[in-house]
Amino acid sequence: MIPADFEPIERSSVAEQVAKKLLDLVRTKNLRPGDQLPPERELAAAMQVSRPSVREALRGLQILGVLKVRQGGGIYVSSLEASDLLGPLQLLITLNEQNVNALYESRKLIDGGIGRMAAERITPEDLTRMKNMLLVQRGLINDPIGFRVSDVEFHRVLSDATGNPFLVRVSTSLYILGMEYRRIAAETPGVLSQSFQDHELIVAALAARDPDAAEAAMVQHMTNVHLSTVNAMDITP
User: Fold this and answer.
1) What digits encode the pLDDT tens for the residues 138-163?
2) Residue 95 domain-assigned (yes or no)
3) Contact predicate 68/33, CB 8 Å
4) How far apart are CA 177 and CA 179, in angstroms?
5) Which of 40, 58, 82, 166 has the greatest number of C-beta atoms within 10 Å?
6) For 206, which DSSP code?
7) What's the chain's average pLDDT?
């Protein structure tokens, strides 16, 4: 709930200060997951700011995943799960010539870590699923659309195997950022064959429970994906 002695907001960066005050309430558990916020006009009156400033702050917190708008009206504190809080990163960044190299630099670091962690934590059931995916992918090397669908599932199961929701969300967002150019790259002869070979090495390392090999296989996979992506974009890596 909103305390009665809520302090007025200073006039500089009003919307940011409103957002900070609301975040402070969440951190101190004055606002808990599932709590409904007061109407916009009441928040504005309590903080002695304009309604547009409150509206801007609420919109920002919704983008971050801290707040949710429910059907039928009302703004509520989200579940505060990692998948909510990281938000749709892919909507905030557009892949272009300037940042594609940075994207794959990030993916090598993150996906390499995912490979290492997955080798230590993957369940027998998920390992079996990944082996079965390889059987399917072998028959999809000449089917770019089918292979891409299977590739999404392959990387999802792999990241899920870490048991770390932050890594899952970040990895998924970075994957989605590159999807448009991966679609173009998938039409290039040899690209899907290389990806399949990479996947085989990754699964072999996971099956061996070898974190070093799994990390190295993932980094090499990201290196190969990077090269095929920049070739599809017709730029220099």
Assistant:
1) 999 998 888 888 898 899 999 999 99
2) yes
3) no
4) 6
5) 58
6) H
7) 83
Domain count for the chain: 2
Residue 9 lies in a domain: no
Residue 47 CA to residue 38 CA, distance in Å, equals 12
Residue 68 tokens read as 């949710």
Check whether residue 207 and residue 137 sit in a common domain.
Answer: yes
Whether the predicted pLDDT of 53 surpasses 70: yes
Count of CB atoms situated within 10 Å of the CB of 62: 15
* 135 has a pLDDT exceeding 60: yes
Structure tokens at 180: 């448009």
Q: pTM for the complete prediction? A: 0.63
pLDDT of residue 73: 79
Listed residue (27, 177, 166) closest to 83, CA to CA: 166
The last residue of a domain, from among 59, 79, 99: 79
Quick check: helix, strand or coil at residue 220?
helix
What is the token pair recorded at 97? 């010539």
